[in-house]
Amino acid sequence: MRKIVNALLPGRGDQYRGEVLFSEEKILAVGPHIEAPEAEVIDARGGLVVPGLVDVHVHLRDPGFTAKETIVTGTRAAAAGGFTTVCAMPNLNPFPDDADTVGPYLQRLKDEAVIPALPYACITKGERGEELVDFRALRERWGIRLFSDDGGRGIQDERILERALRAAAELDVILCFHCELLSLRPAGAFMFEGERSRQLGYTDQVPDADESAYVKMVCDLARRIPARVHICHVSAADSVKYIRDAKKAGARITAEASCHHLTLTEWDFKDSNDKMNPPLKSEADRQAVIAALLDGTIDFIASDHAPHTVQEKAKPLPEAPNGIVSSETSFPILYTRLVEREKRLSLNQLIELMSSKPAERFNLGRIGRLEPGCPADLAIFERGSFTIDPERFESKGRNTPYAGETVSLSCTQTISRGRTVYERRRG
Ligand SMILES: [Zn+2]
Fold it and tell me: What is the pLDDT of residues 109-126, one digit of tens each?
């Protein structure tokens, strides 16, 4: 049994000073003072203690792209960001797209991940957007409930999209869509087509309809077909509108926003470390995404942690790969920018959006809660002034737009199922 003392805990209203008692399995008690003389004591030194964060959107790159990241480094990076559960996207080699490849992949996740890592399987074979995977076989043989088209071409043919929803509607599975209409995306585009790209003289960039037209297509189908669908990293005001209307019409739809779309815009674009998909949009889009998070149209926050090597990101802008690393920065950045500076979210709201909300919406069980009886997944954040230094990341990736930024929280320890899985290095 262990007990965290001297902790700042998220309460119903404000935070309060308290303690958390837990065993190898479960949280046993949470409160201002807990009598447990036999427990080993962890002194949080006034730090913030949160339920282990839940991230349903990470790219672990393993198997297939281990120069970028591995199951070990990717889950260690997540733990270093306060996460205790991640869901790993399927743009891998081999693709987890049939019952034979998924078996060994699942086993590796179980053996190598330092925190629970749940796999997505592909929606189509080889992520080519053509032939559907056998959802039922993957569900029944391996218990796979999450399917995604992220990282590939997406499904560009609406008839195949419709067939995917019809197949999924009969099963207890969630289909995640990256939402990118390739016909609207000029080759080599690397930036949002807006005021900033025009000012820089970059033509033929990515219009917001590249995302929102696809979101509309998914929303329209989800109104007719009762499949559980999820929209990844919403970044455009129009997308928000379509999701809001579809939810009102009863579609079984959830959506996520990522830290970078909540905190950055086209005006922050400097180099390939700001190149991601969907691209950073206008301030009006950012405000629409924040408003959607506040009114529940967007259900929760996910990181879209997407590591690449320094060499890959050093390529000229049109060729450099999309994506940024964000496991280790999402919570501190969102706290510092949206809670402290912009005062758009309360701390408790931010915690919920990154723990209990994704866990609930994805039916991941009783994780993401700081309550007796829930799994002993916790993270401790020191409060103060800290500089984001990519050289200190646990991730292999260094591709962050937030290098050098000052944040007010730093994760000192992460506990997964009662065991310490991350402790910050001294110095
Ligand atoms: Zn992604």
Answer: 999 999 999 999 999 999
CA distances from 25 to 31, 79, 163, 374, 375 (A): 18, 18, 41, 8, 6
- Quote the tokens at residue 359: 């866990």
Instruction: Tell me the pLDDT of the chain averaged across its residues.
Output: 97
Contact (Cβ atoms closer than 8 angstroms) between residue 52 and residue 377 = yes
Span from the CA of 323 to the centroid of ligand 1 (angstroms): 8
**Domain 2-48+375-423 shares a fold with domain 52-361:** no
Q: What are phi and psi of 53, to 5 degrees?
A: -75, 155
Count Cβ atoms within 10 A of the Cβ of residue 332 and give its class: 0-12 exposed, 13-18 middle, 19 or more buried: buried
Proportion of the chain in helix, strand, coil states, percent, rounded to 5? 35, 25, 45
Output the CA–CA distances (angstroms, integers) from residue 61 to 145, 202, 259, 302, 324, in the order listed: 20, 31, 20, 17, 13
Contact 50, 350 (CB under 8 A): no
Given the candidates 3.20.20.140, 3.40.190.10, 3.40.980.10, 3.40.50.2300, the CATH classification of the domain at 52-361 is 3.20.20.140
Are 370 and 26 within 8 A, CB to CB?
no
CA 177 to ligand 1 center in whole angstroms: 10
Looking up tokens 């709201």 gives 349
pLDDT tens-place string over residues 234-269? 999 999 999 999 999 999 999 999 999 999 999 999
For ligand 1, the distance from its centroid to the CA atom of residue 379, given in whole angstroms, is: 24
pTM for the predicted model, two decimal places: 0.97
Domain coordinates in residue numbering, the chain: 2-48+375-423, 52-361
Q: Which two tokens stand for residue 43?
A: 């002194």
Q: Rounded CA gap, 328 and 326, in Å? A: 6
Distance CA 352, CA 215 (A): 25
Closest listed residue to residue 400, CA positions, set 261, 280, 307:
307
Pick from 332, 377, 338: nearest CA to 359: 377
From the candidates 43, 304, 377, 389, give the one annotated as an active-site residue.
Answer: 304
| Mean pLDDT value of segment 326-332 | 98
14 is catalytic: no
Q: How far is CA 147 from the centre of its chain?
A: 15
The correct CATH number of 2-48+375-423 out of 3.30.70.260, 3.40.50.1000, 2.30.40.10, 1.10.10.10 is 2.30.40.10
